[in-house]
Design goal:
The chain has about 210 residues and is mainly alpha-helical. The chain has one domain (about 1-210). It has helices at about 1-20, 25-35, 40-65, 75-95, 105-120, 125-135, 140-145, 150-180, 185-190, 195-210.
Length: about 210
């Protein structure tokens, strides 16, 4: 029971960490609100941002479940660890920041952008070590560790918990910037989390082998 609670807490914490990154959504929500000069635009943007992020997590978990039908949890951890470490190393050498002139996007486009950004940043991969530890029994093939329906339910719950953590922190960050400082602060003092994000990816990749 304690292990399960820790896993849920970790999933929510990862969602909060993803939501803290300005490149993962709240910066776009703030920019849209400033451009339209409406607070409602900020909160409206949170819906597609969260949906896109949640879809990226769900896709990563679904792929892991399909792969788990033939591979053991131990075998799955190696490619996940390598992908996480590779993405982290790539992030260290390639910093991509959103352009201010490109902030005007539709809600559908924002959902797609959030999905692609979360996928490219390895957000779904960071969730997999926790999901694998929740659903697999050591030394057993993933398909026999839990029933398919049980795994699907665990995957849905993991996605939901992670999404709630992401939404809470994204909304809080957007509110704080809009109400306290405004977009001008970000132009003067960009909060660069690229290095922290890259280090987190590499660290998670290493820890994946020991989960």
């Amino acid at each position: 029971m304690e292990t399960t609670f820790t896993s849920w807490l970790t999933l929510a914490g990862l969602g909060a960490f993803h939501g803290l990154n300005p490149g993962m959504g709240w910066l776009f929500a703030v920019a849209l609100g400033m451009q339209e000069r409406k607070r409602t635009a900020v909160w409206r943007a949170l819906i597609p941002l969260t949906l896109g992020h949640v879809l990226a997590i769900a896709v990563a978990i679904a792929v892991a479940m399909v792969a788990g039908a033939a591979l053991s949890p131990g075998m799955l951890r190696w490619p996940v660890a390598l992908l996480l470490t590779g993405l982290g190393a790539r992030q260290l050498y390639r910093h991509v920041h959103p352009r201010w002139a490109a902030m005007r996007v539709s809600m559908g486009g924002l959902t797609l952008w959030s999905f692609l950004m979360a996928s490219a940043h390895g957000a779904g991969l960071m969730v997999l070590p926790v999901f694998l530890s929740m659903t697999a029994v050591a030394g057993a093939p993933s398909c026999h560790a839990r029933g398919a329906s049980t795994q699907a339910l665990a995957g849905a719950m993991a996605t939901l918990v992670h999404g709630l953590g992401y939404l809470a922190v994204t909304a809080l960050a957007a509110w704080f910037v809009v109400d306290r400082f405004g977009l001008g602060l970000l132009r003067r003092a960009w909060i660069n989390l690229d290095v922290i994000w890259a280090a987190a990816l590499i660290l998670t990749g290493g820890l994946t082998l020991f989960v």
